[in-house]
Specification:
With 198 residues, the protein is an alpha+beta fold. It has one domain. Helix content is 30%, strand content 34%. It is built from five helices and nine strands, in the order αααβββββαβαβββ. It has a seven-stranded mixed beta sheet. α1 crosses α2 and α4 crosses α5.
């Protein structure tokens, strides 16, 4: 799936600007993946998966919405969740890294088992809207380091770098949940990847 995201992202990123909202970007990415022949051949990409649960009275309640999921087969519980957040946004009021929201309102959903419950793996995608992927990477890692206790990080070094592929920056973090451990891979995508490809 990573290669499919790398393949579709350059054309996908041309369809929005640095002020685009997260859902618009994610919808464009999902549509691009759904239209990509290689992606279509291997898995089903489903946007905005609504998670349902029961409350104490047995009534159905919405637990949340995963930005998108990848199904590899027809078993409903076998999916990889993708939670997406914007990073390094220049608002009218000024610049914000949004790394804190990436961690508190994104990564924490995996740690709390709101997303990928019972799964050993999940993915965070960061849309780096000012194209400074290195600064975004450092800001996110700093937030994870600062909040490693709250995030139930597996060890004192809460992040591990993964090989950089093309224009992407990647790392992983491992978290202890109530009944199991989850590895979350982080994928940071620049707004204009063509500028970063050598």
């Amino acid at each position: 799936m990573l290669q499919s995201i790398i393949d579709v992202w350059p054309d996908c990123a041309k369809r929005f600007d640095s002020m685009a909202l997260e859902n618009h970007i994610t919808d464009q990415l999902v549509l691009s993946l759904q239209r990509d022949p290689q992606s279509r051949k291997n898995w089903l990409v489903v946007p905005q998966l609504k998670l349902l649960d029961e409350d104490l009275a047995g009534d159905v309640v919405t637990k949340g919405f995963i930005d998108f999921v990848i199904y590899f087969d027809l078993i409903q519980e076998n999916y990889i969740a993708y939670e997406c957040k914007r990073l390094n946004v220049n608002f009218d009021s000024g610049f914000e890294s949004l790394a804190d929201k990436y961690v508190d309102k994104g990564l924490m959903r995996y740690v709390s088992a709101q997303y990928a419950q019972g799964m050993p793996f999940g993915v965070m995608v960061g849309y780096v809207l000012d194209n400074d992927v290195q600064a975004a990477l450092e800001a996110v890692k700093s937030q994870i380091q600062k909040k490693k206790g709250k995030l139930f990080c597996f060890d004192n070094l809460p992040t591990s770098d993964l090989p950089t592929l093309s224009f992407t920056f990647r790392f992983s973090s491992t978290h202890i949940r109530k009944y199991a451990v989850i590895e979350v891979q982080h994928l940071l995508l620049p707004l204009t990847p063509g500028d970063l490809i050598e």
